[in-house]
Specification:
- By secondary structure, the chain is an alpha+beta fold.
- 31% of the residues lie in helices and 35% in strands.
- It is rod-shaped, with a radius of gyration of 39 Å.
């Protein structure tokens, strides 16, 4: 099914010069395929004439022939359906084409002719299927993106759990926390702004994809402690940007334990 191009042509011919004498005029419509320009047979046209001055209406129909042509004849009597007071609404229908209405007017008594080219937007099965395919593909991509994002979040949670290290003595814990400061300084994009006996903090990320980190030393039983590492990243609040940040955060968390092990050997 293809797009429909309609030309509605108003031709005025006058029997008497008086504005209130009977005037015969004709509406003609030609249906043709917009792409091939071939005439389209079997298009039902409906012409609705409305006299705006009194609301009087006249409705006529015709079916396009093998040449794509159909026409109706109207008679303006006593001033009805003539002059600037006349509105014309033309609609057409054929299976596979979208109905369209166009309102125009012509001063029949003034001898004007008007031509209206009406172009439909095809709403056929192929376009519907294409639209459905696009919507389905978008939904599939959105679902896949959500799954990837969820996977990254799960990996980050695991990486943060594995970045929690324990130490048994004060001397070892002091050394490990000092090494933690080195790791944060080397790994985070943001500079360290605060260091205490139990906390290491970088500045909050400002630039896109910048990585910030915090470390915490939590006392345990006796002289033991736990050292925990957390991270933050600046993204654009989009799935793609968020995933880029998550990758950086995961890498930072996963590298902590191997770094500490290598430095303590």
């Amino acid at each position: 099914m293809k797009r429909l191009l309609t030309a509605a042509i108003l031709a005025a011919c006058f029997i008497a010069p008086s504005a209130f004498a009977d005037t015969t005029f004709k509406w003609s419509a030609i249906a043709s395929d917009k792409e091939t320009k071939a005439p389209i047979e079997g298009v039902l046209f409906t012409f609705k004439l409305v006299d705006k001055s009194n609301g009087k209406e006249s409705v006529q129909t015709c079916m396009s022939d093998a040449k794509g042509y159909c026409g109706i004849t109207a008679v303006a009597s006593g001033g009805f359906f003539s002059g600037a007071n006349m509105n014309v609404v033309v609609t057409h229908h054929k299976d596979g084409y979208l109905d369209i209405a166009y309102t125009g007017w012509s001063d029949a008594n003034g001898g004007r002719q008007a031509a209206f080219w009406l172009t439909t937007t095809a709403d056929d099965d192929k376009q519907k299927q294409a639209a459905a395919n696009i919507a389905r593909e978008a939904a599939d991509k959105s679902e896949q993106a959500a799954k990837v994002h969820a996977d990254f979040l799960a990996k980050l949670a695991d990486a943060e759990a594995n970045a929690r290290l324990t130490c048994a003595t004060k001397s070892i814990c002091d050394k490990m926390f000092a090494l933690t400061e080195i790791y944060v300084s080397q790994t985070a994009t943001m500079k360290i702004q605060s260091v205490t006996a139990t906390r290491i903090e970088t500045h909050n990320p400002i630039d896109s994809f910048a990585l910030g980190m915090n470390a915490y030393r939590v006392p345990g039983k006796g002289d033991s402690s736990s050292i925990m590492l957390k991270s933050s990243c600046k993204d654009f609040d989009t799935p793609t940007a968020a995933n880029i940040c998550l990758k950086k955060q995961i890498a930072a968390m996963e590298g902590f334990a191997p770094f500490m092990k290598s430095m303590l050997q």
